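Researcher: Good morning. I'm working through a list of sequences from a screen, and I'd like to move beyond sequence-only analysis. For each chain I'm collecting a predicted structure so we can compare shapes side by side. This is the next one on the list. No need for commentary yet; just the structure.
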Amino acid sequence: MFRSLTPVVKNLLLINVGIYVVASFLMPQLQAWFALYYIESKFFMPFQFLTYMFMHAGIWHLISNMFGLFIFGPLLEQFLGPKKLLTLWMVCGVGAGVLYSGYTAFQMNQLNQKIETFYNNPDPEVFNQFVSDNSYMFKSSIYDLIDRFSRDPSNESYVQQAKANMNQVREYKSNIPMVGASGALFGILVAFGMLFPNTQLFLLFPPMPIKAKYLVLFYGLYTVYNIIVNNPTDNVAHFAHFSGLIIGAILVTFWKKNRTSFY
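Model: Good morning. Structure tokens for this chain:
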């Protein structure tokens, strides 16, 4: 089975597994250094747009990404050639990180506007709505503060406590790291679906055959659905997945038009 591995796929698998072992058992600080942070976070460094895709949140996160590369990568490398396969992986991975950072900046800007609105007019209802929007981040005791603040909205102590809680949410969200090669993998997935659309794949869960183009369509729609729903407790970077799909589709479309250098 492993004899069918192509050079780039094999090296990417070895590098990702090797870095995971080092970061997990020898140098755990690599996770903090190499994860991708919000661009205004104190932990952000430009090289993280590259390094984040070699970090993984756990063994199952690593296995799921590497299994996808193992399944779809070799045939793509044989068809596109090693250089284009590596280009696809890296461009989709880095590009997904860049676009996800823009998406995060947009979300943080909305959060900052809500906090600024409260600062300009410390209204208990504004704070109550803020807590409701971010309820998963608060302990139940926050509702005691909401109740007291609603009864006495001019109390400066309650205003300051509300501001402190809002700033804690901002601090927490601005320092959430993003890791994983999923953006790169989704680029591989969409490329496979575009170049081999009618290839029959057999799913493990549920156990059924499906054509590659329908699998890609399902993943694309599922990703868009999760972006729209925007479940705050979901720690999956769905927008990065979607970004990888879009970038991969653009690259393959360009390569298909430029037939003279396709292989």
